[in-house]
């Protein structure tokens, strides 16, 4: 999805010599300046909310449109259900037993994109909600795949709030969860959010740093990329799931993942192994939370595949662990992995060839 897009008519704003964009990693603030218009973007550290301040100083301001658009969009025929989907501004994509449903909504001047994912007993949902503070926004369905929030033309500042939420409960309204995030932020000014973010980042950066310099500038470039990498990983490693390699949270290709959907520790480790020597061990929490959530699955896999009472953590696995293995295949795997010594007691509690810890 594209959470925010400034659809501006007339002259191009963010082009030419007037355009300048700057990211301050030391306070998490992005500033973009164009022809008569400046935007500042900050994340709220106490919730899943992004605030975008627009300062329009053009001589002849135009309306500013914020488009919320589905990236997962296609027309498939489902007998008896298509009318119900389209009447709700929704689309449904089926891939074998997996069903992904996306729908657009307007609630009290807020625009929302809600998505739910079902496969067997599994269910998850996400919602994105957008609201304008400081202008009287108007929400409309722009087309089948886009809902639009328009701010009327005027000089001066206003703020766009974008909130997200997730749920794993079929009975829970994930859209309401996102709207509660918006409500919690509306009482704060944009400068309040910047102050909160600056305080958080100022506590993060002094924990350790790398200072490099060379006459040809190569060392300086290495330092800059090291700092930027820490900023990116810190921005997306404070949740309950590891950000996945190959785009982390910022994939723009919808469901397309060239490396599939599983975690590959050879790749994940390249992201996370450096946190401890960088004196940011707290960012490893998301790794331990992710794998601890799989504990039952991984302990079952240890018994099935290795005849072990430990936990089998493979190189590659899905976010929810490993599927059960049929008994006949499990016996074959143990014979292969343990070289025919499936019943040897010495093997039962040993470490696997990759990573196993005793329960």
Question: Can you describe this structure?
Answer:
This protein has 359 residues and is an alpha+beta fold. It starts with 5 loop residues before the first strand and ends with a strand. The strands form 4 sheets. Strands 2-3-4-5-13-10-9-8-7 form a 9-stranded antiparallel β-sheet. A 4-stranded antiparallel β-sheet has the order 1-6-12-11, with no helix packed on it. It has a two-stranded antiparallel ribbon with strand order 14-16. It has helices at 82-86, 174-186, 190-204, 218-236, 265-272, 285-293, 295-306, 327-337, 345-348, and strands spanning 6-7, 20-24, 29-33, 37-44, 49-56, 64-69, 90-95, 98-107, 110-119, 122-133, 138-143, 146-151, 156-167, 263-264, 310-313, 316-317, 355-358. The protein contains 9 helices and 17 strands. It is 27% helix and 30% strand. The longest helix is centred in the middle third of the chain and has 19 residues, at 218-236. The protein folds into 3 domains: 6-71 and 124-202, Beta-galactosidase, Chain A, domain 5 (Distorted Sandwich); 208-289, no CATH class; 294-358, no CATH class.
